[in-house]
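Let us practice reading a record.
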Amino acid sequence: MNFYQKSLAEFEEDYYAGGTTGIIVSSCLGSIAAMLILMTGHGLIEMIQLGAVVVVCMWYNASFLAQLKAKFVLNSFILSILVSTILIIVNLI
């Protein structure tokens, strides 16, 4: 089994604990990314970045709260973390 399969199996086993922790992590990283984006400026590019962060973080939150399948929720979490982290790095440089 690879890392993703192990993570998915663990996430399926403890869906509510993992999802709740994921909401906290996703929201915190998303808010850090939003703060850095807004510190950079208020132009069109920044607003597109801000919209992307808000959409992916809320997508994960909504998918967990709607109790969708564990694989979809985990994939949404991974996407949320990746987008937030990439935009944090981009706006720190």
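A brief commentary: The first helix runs from residue 3 to 13.
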